[in-house]
Structures are given as C-alpha cells and as structure tokens.
C-alpha cells in the first residue's frame, strides 16, 4: 500500500545524529564523533540508591503523575538555578524528557509553517532538525567568537520579523564558545526592542573549565520573565539515560507547553523524577560536577596539545571554555566528508561540520568530542587523525 | 509582552484529563473519576530489583541510547505479542514514552491540518486531544456493542476519504466493550478496499475478565503488515511511572516515526527500558496479570451489583468484558455536569461523558472507574453516588 504522510515528513532530516551514533559504536574505531559524556564518570552508586529510594518510597511514586512534573523536583531545580542568578517560580518550570523535548514542545506551541527563527551558524543540529520538522525557516546570523554580530542581527530581525532567536550562548555545540556579557546584553535589548522571544539552550552550562569568568545567563538577565525561555538538562552532569530536562520562562508559554506535553506523552518518567529528587538531596552533585569539569578540561587540553603539535597548516580552532567539543576549521581544500571514511579506515572518527550549518552546505570544518575517550585514547586517536589530515589531501 | 503562538494552540484542549486528575486527589472524596490502575497491586519488589539490575549492569546502560529502543526489549515484546497471534519483526517495533506518545508520533507523521480521522464515539479523550492538536477533522462512526456499523463506516470512508480509522477495539475507553470478530474482519476489509490505515490502540488488552472468548487483534489479522499500526503499553500491567509503551506496524510508517521520535526526545528513558527487560526475564508477569484480572473483575462485579440494586429507572450500562471502566447512560433529563459538584459534595466523583464525544456536546452519560478503589470503597462510593442519582433530579 502507498501511504499518504503529513507534509512535514518531507522536512524530516534523515537523521545525521543517528548516523553519527552508528559510527560511534564500531569496534576498534576511536570515536570523537559522538556527543556522549564519559560513562566512566557516571555516579552509578548514587543513581542506584536514588532509584531504590524512589521505587520504595510508596506505591504512589509509581502511579500516573502530573504533566508539569514533580513539585519537589521543580523546587530543587529552582534552587539550583537561583545560584546562577536565574530566579524562577517552580510553577513556571516544566519537567521534560531531556532538553530535546523542551525544544520540541516549545516549537510546537510557537511555530507555524513559514515562521522565521534566527540562529547562530553553525548550531545544535538536533535543534535544526526540530525547527525543520515544523516547516519553519531558519535564518543564520553572522557571529564571531563573542556571539552574534549586532548589526546583522538587527537587520535580520527587521527584515524577517522572526518568532524566535535560538541560541546556545554558553559552550555552544559545536563551537564550544561563550558569548560575552556585552553581546548577551545586546541580544536581550534587541529582543525587547522588537518583541522577539529568545530560546536559551543551556545543556553545557555546568561543564565550565574556568568558573571565574562566566557571564550571566540570559534567563538571569530577563528580570521581567518575559523574553527568555530557558532549557537545561541533567544528561551531561548525572546520566543521559534518566532523560530529564526542564524548561522555564514566561508563564503563558510554559502553560501552553504543559498542554502540548499532556498530548505528547502525559508526563515525564516519574521514577526518574523521584530518583533525581533523592539524588539532589542525598548526593553532592556539585562536587561531582567539579570532577567532571576537571576530567574534561584535562582531556580538552590533551586534544589541544595534539592539534597544536601536529602543526597542520591552515588548521584553526578556538579553545573551548567548557562543554564537550572542539570545532576545527580545516584548510579550504579539505573535504571532511571525503576524509571521514579514510579516517575510519585508519581507526578514528569525527563529525564533518556540514549538518551543523543552517544551509547544510559542505564546509571545511569538523567537530571533535573530547569527553568520551580516555587521555590515552585521545592521544592515540589524535595521532591517527592528524596523520590522516597531514597526508591525505582531499 | 504579547506572544504570537502557533495556530495549533487554538485547538489545544484545556485539558479535561488534568481536571479529572485534580478531582481525584481531593481528600475524602471516593473517586471513580480517574483512569488509574490500583497502586496497591504494583509489583514494587520486582520493579525495584529490575531497576537495580539495570543500573548496575554496566555504565553503558546509563548512556544515550538508540532512538528506536533497546533491541532486547523489542524482542521480548515481539515474543509477547506473538502469543496473541501478532507476528512482528522486532525492527518494526519502536519504544515510546507510553502509548500516548505513540498516538502523538503517529499523528505527527500522518496528518496535515484538515485530514480526516474516523473514530468510535465516545472514544479515548486524550487521543481526541492529540488529533485536535494536529488540526485534523474527526468524524464519528455509528457503533453498537459489537463495534462500528459497516454501512455508516463505508459511507463515511467514501464521503470523507479519511487518512486513518482510530479504534480501541478491546475493552474500549470509556465503553469497556469488545468488538466482535465479524466486525473486526469488516473493518479490516474496508481498510484494504479503500486503502485506509487503522490505528489499533490496545492499552487494556491484557485486562480481560473472560479469557476464553477473545477475538483476534486487528494487528494479528493484518497478515501483510500493511494496514494496521498497533500500540500498547505496560502502564496498566506493570507501572505507569515507567512510561513505556510501543508502536508497531508497516515498516515505512515505523521508520518515519523513528525520525519524529528523534526530534521529539532522542529516545525513551533507557533505564526503564533495561529494567523492563530484566523484569520480563526474571518475573512472572503473566501470573501478575492474572492477579490484576481477578482483582479488577471482582471490583467490576461489585460496582455492577451496586448499580443493579439501586434500580434507577432509565439508567443503563453494558457489563465491561475487561478494562477499567463502566460507561453508564443516565436518564435523558439528567445532567452529569450539574450532578458532579453535588456528587463531590456528597463524597464521590465520576467523569461526565462529554469530553469522550467527538462533538463535545453534553449527554446523559458518565464514566466510572472501578480499578482504583477497594471493594469497601466501591460499596461506599456507589452508595453515595446512587443516593445522589436517586434523589437529585437535574
């Protein structure tokens, strides 16, 4: 039988992320391709205890639960956000199945086909996939290492009248960069001037390598709780398999997201929610985050040294100030799509930059993950990778 | 600030289910309003063991996982379905966050605004909420206690050229009825004749009170795996808080649902998935289901006796053959919306039938849940309810 599908399936991306995950799982290939935290760092014992406590805390904990999420969890997340200056009413927080679902549900309540979203370029590819599935038009804004460029942003706001500006201002994926305080102020001022909602996606905010120098979260700067919808997750700091994230911002938007969430899946896994409450109460997550930071920083520095020592002419990168990735610009003549199979043959994988760009055009860039390999494997993998980059000229 | 939302939010239902859940949680009211399984029956010890085993089975179990779901779980679900004659390749199964998400993701890949879906009337209200959020048109089909009426179904297929026929053929919510084998064959034959996809929603199939007399699942009858997309869940047989369901059917549809799922939330909670694998391997779920069946059947019979003994003229119902609900037709002059606050004042709650109808018009019907109250509370609650129905004439 021939099926008649929804028009939106034409805009489904045939799933770059899944293809990446397939490469990751190949036997003896050292993969810098994925976006995985190091499972060796997972606080397994604390997670085990937290789930045990959750499951045995009374049968009600295993029953259907409220769509918005557990109040006890929302209160704890509000307290944690407050430490970063983000002041939110727990009732304006909604628990999601990872921040991916937050992006999806926000899109569901905001976007009609043809609506315009402004983004950095490159940006988080799975956000681009979501936006595309809602048949929106994504317009990239010129950026430098401090964030979007004011002139281009204001021009494009005036030209395209966007519904939303989507940004990952702190340790962006794939770039690893941090927006300056001044650019953040500029972004919020333009959002206020032209009445545009900002989505601040903050999955990596806790993975910072130099805690002293952090600018404010946009959500912290939006004192009236009017312009910034903020999402974050525990996937990078506790474990991804718990699938817990949250979204918070203007009351009216969060209320509609709750209605969308109810239709989408009734509520987020509540055993995980109860377990996270226990984990946040019983376990020193901040100390654990310090360990994660130190471990990832060490790996980042090893990868940086390997890149530097290889002295490949025309290869440039920005040292990541946090997060999980190096974003590497290759000499213009290099074609990372053509290089990838050769690299895999030589026992190392990366992600070509293409899917992170709004226009999906080929470019001489690649993303390297440094969190999911041990220092030894980073050394060995980078030896293999830089050998390919030094000798293969395609 | 005034926000510009997506057009679809106009079709969001301001959430009858949530309102119902709020009534449920009031202190000393005996509630027949919810759709909750009895948490006293939850296999807490087995769930606890299964999660412990899952969490301690290696850190990979806590990592990001495949969008489609764990293969080991899909294989076990395929084996369980096979016992019901439903033969599916595990690769054509996708694990969802409850069957609610299955309905949502299926809708996402199938429906454009204005597309027509044929349903029973009344039917599962949260499916109606999903369909409405995709701006579809739902057309009700005349039914009797054996299922949809052939003539009306064929007429409306010809008139409306529907994309899909959505049915809950086994212990429907709210009706509790079972389609006859003959009507199932008729439905499938018409689907084949006119090339319409059937969504078979089967959350209650395991909760049957008389196992001898079950007709075939539509998915079992669809030998070519062409016309029936089937969804089920463990929320009624294990625990709802694990948020696990699945969807299976034509390969092409399931493949697109996987792409939608990736954008929606990357993958379903994988700790829950691993735990369910262990639970299905280590625990006698079928014996547990027998206990659930016996317990719920006893409660259903008590509620039936209370309804019969009250001898309220003009009150009729069909004895449920399984599932969780009585669907009660009241005398025409009665207004269940007006009765509800009086009933709650008198310490008992029910759901007025209205939100289960496609047209949302008021009707003299109510849904009574018998699974979430003990026999004693059913006796007491029914005493209160029948007293109200016998004395209050609005």
TrEMBL record, chains A, B:
InterPro entries: Aminotransferase_I/II_large, Class-I_PLP-dep_aminotransf, PyrdxlP-dep_Trfase, PyrdxlP-dep_Trfase_major, PyrdxlP-dep_Trfase_small. Residues 33-385 form the Aminotransferase class I/classII large domain. Its cofactor is pyridoxal 5'-phosphate. GO terms for molecular function: pyridoxal phosphate binding; transaminase activity. Keywords: Aminotransferase, Pyridoxal phosphate, Transferase. Transmembrane segments: none annotated. GO terms for biological process: alpha-amino acid metabolic process. Homodimer. Belongs to the class-I pyridoxal-phosphate-dependent aminotransferase family. This is Aminotransferase. It comes from Halolactibacillus alkaliphilus.
